[in-house]
TrEMBL record:
Entry GO CC: cytoplasm
Bias (Basic and acidic residues) ranges: 352-362
Annotated keywords: Cytoplasm, GTP-binding, Hydrolase, Metal-binding, Nucleotide-binding, Ribosome biogenesis, RNA-binding, rRNA-binding, Zinc
UniProt keyword Magnesium, yes or no: no
Top-level taxon: Bacteria
Enzyme's top EC category: hydrolase
Protein name as catalogued: Small ribosomal subunit biogenesis GTPase RsgA
Domain EngC GTPase: 111-258
A Gene Ontology BP annotation from the UniProt entry: ribosomal small subunit biogenesis
Amino acid sequence: MTLEQYGWNEDWNQLWNRNGDRTEGTMPARIVGDFGSRYRVVTEEGEGWGELSGKLRHSLETFGDYPAIGDWTEVRKSEAGPYILQRVLERRSQISRKAAGSQPREQIVAANVDTLFLVSALNDDYNIRRMERYLIMAWNSGASPVIVLTKADLCDDPESRLREMELAAPGVPVLAVSAVKDRGRAKLMPYIGEGRTATLTGSSGCGKSTLVNWLSGEEVQLTGAVREDDSRGRHTTTRRELFVLPDGGIIIDTPGMRELQLWEDEGGLDLAFADIAQLSAGCRFADCRHEREEGCAVREAVESGELAEKRLRSYHKTQRELQFQATKESRLKRKGAAAAAAGTKGSGSRARKYDWRAEMDE
């Protein structure tokens, strides 16, 4: 076993060697398992448990941004046995969503990912509006998105679904596969080459763990049946884990998402709705909202049938959600800054909650 098998390369080596803050006697390690309060890490010595140093824990309690699966870290071996995480190396990419709860807080799903597989099953799990949300998360992450439509053997016409998804995801590869029938594996291989890291994300029961087993050639993850009435599954994957594939690629499996609440938008909205962004260049007004303005090229495309009305509605709904999220986060930051200046702890805001699910087209 070598660190190179887990994605260590010359770029990471240069980052490691030019960092003047490195402590003597430490070594690089990648987080390969996230168990909440503890981590599994792999070093040049092998795999073991990792715990946060007191200094790092104190820093994180103040600023957040806890280590995530896929992170490269600086560790030292303790006399008691576990590796002590001293710090996290600068990330090349990070997949984030809003954490559960009323307060705006970021949850990092995975870090240092090259390819993000957005998984949806070709049964009742199939949902274009939901996939638009996943695409925004993907484009904001810095990873390259690839849509994987699983369980193609359960669909009478997978090709039409594939074409439909391609229209909703301009420029994004869309692949239809069936692990049960062993179809489409070769389509995935270019995205999980040696030393490259891919992550799977999607709703519960969409077939992520089955994909991991299929690509690994063995049963490394538990899988479970889905309910026949709604094609939903239980959380058979309850933690985030990283696996090295026989062909040299690296894949991270994550628990299924019952819902995806978006975090900040760093251009992901326009990339996920690239067709609307392109059309908007022809609008008469630069600040056109594509609602009732004169000379709106986007509305004209809807009226001519070039753009689906549903897609524009989804764009507006997602835009409102992201604006609401940004406003709420800004308000909380100002409140926290004022509380810090006064030497007190800020209290939680009881601002109304934006219910994006009420607006999502099924």
